[in-house]
Write a structure and sequence with these properties.
The chain is α/β, with parallel strands linked by helices. Helices cover about 55% and strands about 5% of the residues. It has helices at about 5-10, 25-30, 45-55, 75-80, 100-105, 120-165, 170-185, 190-200, 210-215, 225-230, 230-240, 245-255, 275-290, 300-310, 320-330, 345-350; strands spanning about 15, 35-40, 60-65, 90-95, 110-115. Strands 2-1-3-4-5 form a five-stranded parallel beta sheet, with helices on both faces. The site of fe (ii) ion has 6 residues, from loops.
Amino acid sequence: MSSTRQTLKSKRILIVDPLGECLPLAKKLVDENFEKTILSRSFEELLRILTNARATREPIDLLIVSMHLPEFNDADFFKTIRSVYSGAMMSLAESTDQRDLQLRLSGGADDIFVQNSNPELFLLKVECLLTRKILRDQMGLSTYRNEALFLNILAVMAKVLEAKDPNTRFHSEKVSMLATNIAREMGLPEDEIKRVSIAGILHDIGKMGIPESILRKPGPLDPAEREVVERHPLLAAQILEPIEKLKQAVDYIKHHHEHYDGSGYPEQLSGDAIPLGARILHVAEAFDSMVTVKNYAETLLPEEALAEIQRCAGQQFDPFIVDVLDRILRRSGLLVPQANMPTKSLPQLLEEFAV
Ligand SMILES: [Fe+2]
């Protein structure tokens, strides 16, 4: 048997059949060496199998549903199934009534087999659905691997960029850590927190396109140099744009220098028009820059940096996020003057924010 056929035969097929009328079809599959064919008798059992399969990462590849399952005619049937199952689905039908067939297809079935038709046609449909599923999985996997590789390369490049300059070492990690804590303190959903974390790591990736002579200039920048530096959020967005699943995180990066009053860049957005993740990054980045030791500007203590950020709340920063930062810092104890505070590294300090 060729390896493609072997792969096909190794797929898991679940038939939901409360009345036992699908046994001839199940037998046909077993005769054709589809050895992982299982039967389920009820809707509850079906949901249990699908949920377990997902949890154990041994997914069902093809689901075949009898039209005599009582729940089959519920309006939410396909929606419920699709909430726990993303594989191929075949619906069995009693007749070739076009309206009925159309309803099943638009509901979420990938194909239909009219019961008591030629079993060879059934087999052909099963093989088609499984082949499509295998191709879809392979395409998804290679896209995922390419995107993950691309992101890892970018994260390494961001580190290399920062490592060359003692003023910016660990900047991405620190901004990401603080922004993550702010997002968590705000009670944002896990997906959103993850996007903010990733955006924090990659937020300054656009600086790869800025000449080092400007990035490492010890003194203040002249207007032309400032204009070049201010291109970095747009450059980052251009680098990351091809990664579809980063769409929102890219938006946060693109706007992480917008000011709450509309005086920032690149698009002079203001207030809630600035994506929330970008407003969080802006506060986190400002705090990290202020407390980091650098050779071109004064280093502030955490309480001084907080006071400065509070002074600019409503103009540069979202006041709500500034309050969240205040809460996190106070709870961490960082604002209480400590004899050894200046000797602590910022990564250590930021770790203490973790809740
Ligand atoms: Fe930046």
